[in-house]
Amino acid sequence: MKSKLITKITLCGLLLSGVYGMAQTNTFEVEVGKSVTKIQPTMYGVFFEDINFAADGGLYAEMIKNRSFEFELPFMGWQEPNSDRHKLNTNSGIAKIIKYATEGTNHSYCRVTINEPKGYELINEGFRGMGIKKDARYNISLNAAKESGNISKIKIQFIDKNNTVLGESSITPTASNWTNYTSQLIATKTEAKARIKITFEGTGVLDLDMISLFPEDTWKGRKNGMRKDLVQLLYDLKPGFLRFPGGCIVEGRTLAQRYQWKKTVGEVAKRETLINRWNTEFAHKPTPDYFQSFGLGFYEYFLLSEDIGAAPLPILSCGMACQFNTGELVPMEKLDPYVQDALDLIEFANGDVTTPWGKIRSEMGHPKPFNLKHIGVGNEQWGPDYIERFKVFEKAIKAKYPSIIIVSGSGPFPEGDYFDYAHSELKKLNAEIVDEHYYKSPEWFRKNATRYDSYDRKGPKIFAGEYAAQSVEIASPDNKNNWECAFSEAAFITGMERNAEVVHLTSYAPLLAHEEGWQWTPDMIWFNNLESFGTPNYYVQQLFSNNKGTDLITITEKGKAITGQNDLFASAVKDVNTKEVIVKIVNTKDTPQKVNLNFKNAKLESKGELITLKGDQLNDENSFATPKKISPITSMLTLNGTDANLNLAAYSVTVLKIKMK
């Protein structure tokens, strides 16, 4: 009996505690009248790296894999189901890769010998298949040269796994010299795993190269452009900058495999194919067919930045290969070409059309400068070798382009000897912006919301260039884009926003991942050959980026910033252009909480817009089946004079926007 009584009393106490806990109101003061500092237009941006099939097979809408037969295995991506090679009792035909050059960019082409009319087939598998949509149009182009015989037609078809034809077109080769031919296919069915089949009418020998296929419906309708749905997701973020091309892609496993921007501009067919450094980096997800065609090159990156309203932020090699791989170094006496690449890039972006590189930009279709303001030197390099090389770049860039802002790096970790050394040395150099990276647990992000509170206001500004909460551990294939990771990042972001005087740029990483071609998780946007969706992390980024405001203002409880007290995190801004006060609050508690916002020195409208992002469980995720399971919900809130009373859901991110009179 006593035991039961104690149990009843305890249960009753717990229930009352829950009720009173819910009834407790957190009172925050928002000082609208005084601006702490300006919010930089670059505060929230996007970081692009060609990892997870983000470029070829992703953002770059090319559908043919190994279109110019330049992979290390030059026939990778192609099959010959009816060739002599596979059926020795037939004589239909055969393909042979001709390597005609060892220098330059395009080294190989495919020579097809047709012995039986309509008996020989070439099939390209695409990037884990080809996504086609019913009634959509697809533009095929190829280079061909008739070597001998009477091949009169090249037939091109979409087929599915059962070889059912899902669209057809043809090209008539007429010339013995290299000639470009084009045609168009209309898909008769939606199919995520289509392939392209090429057959021939007549017999003879025909040379083929640059076999290319793009949807007609690309971003802004640009010929051979970018995948529309993926760019739209980027555009909807309203990013302040686009950092490109990486990431470790910049460094390369070796210096020979580093990203060289000059090889990625000019005529697409003349851009050199390079093995992607992520192709076999991780044993858990080897992708030996992962290469870079550079159809998405530096010109396209600058154009994309312009399209989505983002400032371009290119990162260049500093003469150090990835220190997690070879760590190969360019000797200091041989560093000049690397430095010249940086100077020439600034000329390519900003130079007058009369300059050598400005002329190339103009000839590619953009006479107007791209208004480049930032450039990054190195990615995640560390130690004295990096500092020594950074000094050379800084001196040369500032001598010729003093207004360009240079981004330096602090290594791959957010603390430790490498990090401390870099910050110490870069501060001595009066570095302008230091790039910090952190891939940590959700708990780390919540505990480090005060990370920048103690940073020197007179020291280098900060670029949080790569960050993401890891649900398991860094580089684990089991990491998920779950809700706990997302709201923990939101808690951390309030800390970055509160310290906008120090933190000038931030970006989640990585940006994109193919459902079947990924190497690294988690990632902000997932896609397959037909669809794409934003993760909860994406919507957190969108909430902050779309509501960054122009001026930081204070939000406090009893005079202190809200940095996790009672599991709440908050920041506040005002926008002098839209005349709004914007408050962001993250509730990381497993129960709802009440918050009273008292606005000081402000005349506000009586109603505000309330945007809520929440998940029911810590492990909740978005998916192709439920792409907006966790996505913003908008409602209206009526103020009580100068107060706003909020009921914050458990595990939620809330944004309140109120117009100023």
UniProtKB/TrEMBL annotation:
Q: Which organism is it from?
A: Flavobacterium polysaccharolyticum
Q: Source organism's superkingdom?
A: Bacteria
Quote any Pfam family the record assigns: Alpha-L-AF_C
Protein name per Swiss-Prot or TrEMBL: non-reducing end alpha-L-arabinofuranosidase
Question: EC?
Answer: 3.2.1.55
Q: Which parts of the sequence belong to the Alpha-L-arabinofuranosidase C-terminal domain?
A: 465-652
Q: Cite the PANTHER family for this sequence.
A: ALPHA-L-ARABINOFURANOSIDASE 1
Q: Where does the signal sequence lie?
A: 1-23
Question: Coiled coil where?
Answer: none
Keyword Zinc-finger tagged: no
Catalysed reactions listed for this entry: Hydrolysis of terminal non-reducing alpha-L-arabinofuranoside residues in alpha-L-arabinosides
What family does the entry list? Belongs to the glycosyl hydrolase 51 family.
- Report keywords, A-Z: Glycoprotein, Hydrolase, Signal
